[in-house]
């Protein structure tokens, strides 16, 4: 399985999740882990699974992640299985009623990433996933790296079922 994991990270939390996912998918040369500014749309051609992750910034993915997704041509993900994740603050950890309301209304980064991947022709292999940070700059909450490994295991299982 040729996998490409493209991520952006502001405080290092999303990078930790992306690294855990890559490690769970395997250690061979068929797994590429790239920061979004190092990734090229051309690399998708040889990819079976594309996983894109971003921190949630202002209720959406980072500008660099959005730019990368826009560069993918229409139907550029045909035949590619895709998955999306983000890092976020849990709604339960937000003290502000107004901010909680805005989070419910505008959401997090993973779902819009998944929607863009599907619109480019990708087949969503799992629902988008959010991994929880304790505060804006982190750190990741306890158990989130283990959840990332479990999520990657589900991706592997679903990939094997579909091939």
How much helix is in the residues?
25-40%
Largest sheet: 6 strands, parallel
CATH architecture descriptor: 3-Layer(aba) Sandwich
Number of H/I helices: 5
Structure characterization notes:
The chain is of the alpha/beta class and 163 residues long. It has one domain (3-162): Rossmann fold. The protein contains five helices and six strands. Strands 1, 2, 3, 4, 5 and 6 form a six-stranded parallel sheet that branches. α1 crosses α5 (144-162). The N and C termini lie close together (10 Å).
In short:
This protein is an alpha/beta fold.
Topology record:
Elements: E1 3-7, H1 13-25, E2 31-35, E3 49-55, H2 63-71, E4 81-89, H3 97-106, H4 110-119, E5 123-124, E6 129-133, H5 144-162
Parallel strand pairs: 1-2, 1-3, 3-4, 4-5, 4-6
Helix pairs in contact: 1-5
Keywords:
single chain; 163 residues; alpha/beta; Rossmann fold; 6-stranded parallel β-sheet; 5 helices; 6 strands; 37% helix; 20% strand
């Amino acid at each position: 399985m040729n996998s490409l994991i493209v991520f952006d990270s502001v405080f290092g939390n999303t990078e930790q999740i992306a690294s855990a996912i890559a490690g769970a998918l395997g250690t061979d040369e068929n797994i590429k882990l790239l920061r979004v500014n190092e990734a090229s749309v051309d690399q998708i051609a040889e990819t079976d699974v594309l996983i894109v992750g971003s921190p949630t910034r202002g209720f959406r993915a980072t500008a660099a992640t959005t730019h990368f997704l826009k560069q993918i041509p229409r139907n550029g993900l045909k035949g590619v299985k895709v998955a999306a994740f983000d890092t976020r603050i849990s709604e339960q950890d937000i003290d502000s009623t107004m901010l909680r309301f805005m989070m419910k209304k505008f959401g997090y980064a993973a779902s819009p990433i998944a929607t863009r991947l599907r619109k480019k022709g990708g087949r969503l292999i799992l629902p988008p996933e959010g991994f929880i940070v304790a505060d804006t700059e982190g750190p990741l909450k306890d158990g989130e790296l283990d959840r990332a490994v479990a999520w990657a295991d589900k991706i592997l299982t679903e990939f094997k079922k579909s091939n």
